[in-house]
Write a structure and sequence with these properties.
Strand content: under 5%
Largest sheet: none
Helix content: over 70%
Distance between the termini: 55 Å
Shape: rod-shaped
Radius of gyration: 30 Å
Number of strands: 0
Number of helices: 6
Order of helices and strands: HHHHHH
C-alpha cells in the first residue's frame, strides 16, 4: 500500500502542476485556443479519475483546484509543460492502481508463498497443535486408552477441517480468481501427522536412554 500511496501522491502533484501551468497559459492565450480547450477537458477527466482512485485506494479525496497561477510569457511552452505533467500524472496514477490490483490478487495469509507451500504449512501447523492438545489430554487423564483412541481419531479430523477453513478464508485473494488447494495433501498431513509425531517422540526417548 505504501508504494501505491506514493504513486498516488505523485499523480496528484503532477496534476496540480499541470493545472497551474494551464491556468497561467489560459490567462494569456487567445479565447479560441484549441489546445487550451483540449487540455482543460483532459484535466477535468483526469481529476475525476484521481477522485475515483482515491476512493479505490481508501485515501482522502485530494484538493485539485488551483487558486492562482503566475503569468506565462510563453504560452506554447507552458501548454507543452502542462501536457507533459498530465502524462506524468496518468503514468503515476496507473502505477498506483496496478499496485493495488497486484496486492488484491494475493491472500492475506503468507501472500508470497505458493499454494502448495501455504497449504502444507497450514496443515502441518494445525497437526502440530493437535499433537500438543492430545499430549495434554493424555497427561490430564493419566494416559487412558479411551482418551488416546478418541483423540487420535478426532483431532486429525479437526485439524484437517480447520486447515480447509483457514485456506478458504485467509488463503484466498481479496480479488481475482479463487485459489484451489490440494485437499489430499492436507488429508495426508493431518491423518499421518499425529502418529508420525508420536513415533518421533518414542524414537527420541529410545535414543536418549
Amino acid at each position: 500500500m505504501g508504494s501505491a500511496r506514493s504513486d498516488f501522491d505523485a499523480a496528484v502533484t503532477a496534476h496540480l502542476d499541470a493545472a497551474t501551468l494551464l491556468r497561467g497559459a489560459a490567462a494569456d492565450a487567445r479565447d479560441d485556443n484549441l489546445q487550451v480547450k483540449q487540455l482543460r477537458e483532459r484535466l477535468s477527466s483526469q481529476a475525476a479519475r484521481i477522485g475515483a482512485a482515491a476512493t479505490e485506494l481508501r485515501l482522502p479525496a485530494p484538493r485539485l483546484s488551483v487558486e492562482s497561477a503566475p503569468a506565462t510569457p510563453d504560452v506554447a511552452a507552458a501548454l507543452g509543460r502542462a501536457e507533459t505533467a498530465m502524462q506524468q500524472a496518468d503514468t503515476a496514477l496507473g502505477n498506483a492502481l496496478r499496485g493495488v490490483a497486484r496486492a488484491s490478487g494475493k491472500p492475506v495469509l503468507l501472500p508470497d508463498a505458493s499454494p502448495v507451500l501455504r497449504a502444507a504449512l497450514v496443515y502441518f501447523g494445525l497437526s502440530l497443535l493437535a499433537w500438543v492438545v492430545q499430549f495434554a489430554l493424555l497427561a490430564a487423564t493419566d494416559y487412558q486408552l479411551s482418551t488416546a483412541v478418541g483423540s487420535l481419531c478426532g483431532l486429525p479430523l479437526l485439524a484437517f477441517g480447520g486447515g480447509v477453513l483457514i485456506l478458504q478464508t485467509l488463503g484466498q485473494p481479496r480479488g481475482g480468481e479463487k485459489i484451489e488447494y490440494p485437499v489430499k495433501l492436507g488429508a495426508v498431513i493431518c491423518l499421518a501427522g499425529l502418529p508420525v509425531m508420536w513415533l518421533i517422540l518414542l524414537v527420541g526417548f529410545a535414543i536418549l536412554r
